[in-house]
Design goal:
Blueprint (H helix, E strand, L loop, with lengths): L1 H22 L8 E8 L10 E2 L13 H4 L2 E7 L5 E8 L7 E7 L1 E10 L4 E3 L8 E3 L7 E10 L4 E5 L2 E2 L2 E7 L9 E7 L1 E6 L4 E4 L3 E6 L10 E7 L6 E8 L5 E10 L5 E7 L5
Parallel strand pairs: 1-10, 2-20, 12-20
Antiparallel strand pairs: 1-5, 3-4, 3-6, 6-9, 7-8, 8-14, 9-11, 12-17, 13-16, 13-18, 14-15, 18-19
């Protein structure tokens, strides 16, 4: 009798296990799914750079993907940070702003960078080491680093890009003298590359931007100089020099400890030629 009861009990156990296995989701192995990525083309995605004093965006009319960027770079990394795919599109590409990749089940990091300029990518095939930038000075750049999981079906995702840079707007309030031929603005430390995985490569020696002074600039007050800034972390020391026609420094002033933020313009007014 006990043996019969034991057999009946074991039968229920086996049936229960079989039912549990039927209820488990199918494990999909060695199968790829399509990842469809679209860059957000809404007008709000490419607003004019914020003024740090106003603290709000000013939307430019006609702000769309194609009117703001010429090149888009897509890079896909696996969960270990190894580069799997790198694609570049230009504005003449028929599907500009969209890309599709076949990928197996897993978690991925998708990096997108877009600019009107040619972005230089420094490859180490490693998310923590790969960099992007402009060795000759920044051009307006929008980026995103997004985590996407592929489980058991195709994935479609729209990704919004954000401006990766800040901006310096420097106004010289006093009149430019007749003997000035060039004005130089130096930022130290600055960078020309940012790490794709986050962070930035600082150049301690900084970067300099030079502007020739034309005849029509002589005597002008409130002359404005603007430049994009890559260093949106550490404080920057700004040095302004004015040269004559034989490259002799006529006047020099320093502005210490200025910080910059992504998508914000920092305005500075300076009396350069008067004490």
């Amino acid at each position: 009798m006990n043996k019969i009861l034991l057999l009946i009990f074991l039968s229920f156990v086996v049936l229960g296990c079989s039912k549990a296995k039927e209820d488990e989701p199918e494990v999909i192995a060695n199968k790829s799914f399509k990842l469809n990525i679209k860059v957000d083309d809404n007008a709000g995605s490419f607003t004019a750079i914020q003024n740090v004093n106003l603290g709000k965006n000013v939307l430019a009319t006609g702000n769309t993907l194609a009117s703001n960027v010429t090149n888009i770079y897509y890079r896909i990394y696996n969960a270990e940070g190894k580069l799997l795919s790198s694609v570049k599109q230009t504005s003449t590409t028929a599907d500009f702003g969209t890309v599709s990749q076949e990928l197996p089940v897993g978690e991925y990091k998708v990096f997108i960078a877009a600019s009107k300029g040619e972005i230089l990518l420094i490859d180490n095939n490693d998310l923590s080491k790969d960099r992007f930038g402009f060795p000759n000075g920044w051009e307006d750049t929008f980026t995103s680093l997004t985590t996407i999981s592929i489980k058991n079906a195709d994935v479609s995702q729209t990704i919004k890009l954000e401006r990766a840079l800040g901006m310096l707007s420097l106004t010289i309030t006093d009149a430019i003298p007749f003997n000035i031929a060039r004005i130089s603005i130096s930022m130290q430390p600055e960078n020309i590359y940012k790490y794709i995985g986050g962070g930035q490569e600082i150049i301690p020696t900084g970067m300099s931007y030079n502007t020739n002074v034309s005849y029509s600039d002589i005597g002008v007050r409130n002359k404005n100089f603007s430049t994009l800034i890559g260093n949106t972390g550490a404080a920057i020391n700004i040095n302004v020099k004015a040269y004559n026609s034989v490259n002799v420094v006529i006047v020099e002033k320093n502005i210490p400890n200025i910080t910059f933020s992504k998508n914000k313009k920092t305005e500075i007014s300076l009396q350069l030629f008067t004490p």
